[in-house]
Amino acid sequence: MKDLQELVRPNILALKPYSSARDEYKGIEASVFLDANENPYNNPNNRYPDPLQNELKALIAPIKGVREEQIFLGNGSDEGIDLVYRIFCRPGTDNVVAIDPTYGMYQVCADINDVEYRKVKLDEHFQFRAADLLAAADEQTKLMFLCSPNNPTGNDLSHEEILTLLRQFQGIVIVDEAYADFSEAPSFLSRLDEFPNLIVLQTFSKAWGCAAIRLGMAFASPEIIGLMNKIKYPYNVNRLTQQEAIHMLYKHPQVLQWIKSLQEERTRMMEEFRKLPCCQTIFPTDANFFLTRVTDANAIYNYLVHQGIIVRNRTHVSLCHDCLRITIGTRPENNALLEALREYKA
Ligand SMILES: *Cc1c(COP(=O)(O)O)cnc(C)c1O
């Protein structure tokens, strides 16, 4: 990769960040805090939260096998995605390259930040070749977005092709592993020390069952994490979220149980879908959802809505005509979907 200094927007390199009261006094041994204009009543919500979420990071680091200075925490993964655009991409000048189809937020953030978004279509197995992404890049390409397992297709991307990109691309490679807990493929977290241009995104929203608390994780070199901390809002993760996440980390064995049950239900659902007359293709998946091509996605989507069952209609997404994306639910929820589809008459 190029020098980090060369990739980062000059105004961000030069930025002097806001310094909060909690940045300037970090100790905990003091007992009288009269520095942050907080209300002395209504403990504990009267106090600003830890801006760097140190207690939480200390619990996440051993579970993920990384060092605390390789972790950034934000208001969902979406905060991490937005921050990397604002760190690296000069509006109106720089561009990014991404696979297509994939998670919609990469493009939305590009559009918000006035950054050109270059899409490279996946092949019929929903795989990509590093050479095709590299061919779409130029001097102004700062970022490449990969999502593995990919949303909405469900499959892991080729490990070898991702490695080739990490070796050959001069900019930053973002590997979004929102669904990695459901996959057997190894995470790219173990390669952070090897690739200074790698950013791995994970989230509490899926396997951890915490979409409501809005907590996303980014893992990268301490230099990149330092830049993310420099430009984030000072108290970007509120105290209630930090506390709930700490509680969930102590329940890690329970989370592993959920993952196992969802994987088992996924296998069962795909076997049952194969028998449905309205189901034409089921695409292989490594996530907590699967993509299926049906006889008429719009009609079946509307039929299910009338039964009070909502799936995701992906028919207008590239390579996904007549496809529905089905999230794995509880056994009774999954059975309700199967029952409804067995009764569907075209
Ligand atoms: C669900 C999802 C996320 C999670 O986003 P949060 O903001 O953390 O809820 C990230 N990436 C992909 C590809 C997703 O599907």
Automatic annotation (TrEMBL):
Cofactor: pyridoxal 5'-phosphate
Occurrences of domain Aminotransferase class I/classII large (ranges): 42-341
InterPro entries according to UniProt: Aminotrans_II_pyridoxalP_BS, Aminotransferase_I/II_large, HisP_aminotrans, PyrdxlP-dep_Trfase, PyrdxlP-dep_Trfase_major, PyrdxlP-dep_Trfase_small
UniProt keyword annotations, A-Z: Amino-acid biosynthesis, Aminotransferase, Histidine biosynthesis, Pyridoxal phosphate, Transferase
PROSITE patterns, sorted: AA_TRANSFER_CLASS_2
Keyword Transferase: yes
SUPFAM superfamilies registered for this protein in UniProt: PLP-dependent transferases
Assigned EC number: 2.6.1.9
BP GO annotations: L-histidine biosynthetic process
Similarity comment: Belongs to the class-II pyridoxal-phosphate-dependent aminotransferase family. Histidinol-phosphate aminotransferase subfamily.
HAMAP family, alphabetized: HisC_aminotrans_2
Protein's name in the database: Histidinol-phosphate aminotransferase
Organism: Phocaeicola coprophilus DSM 18228 = JCM 13818
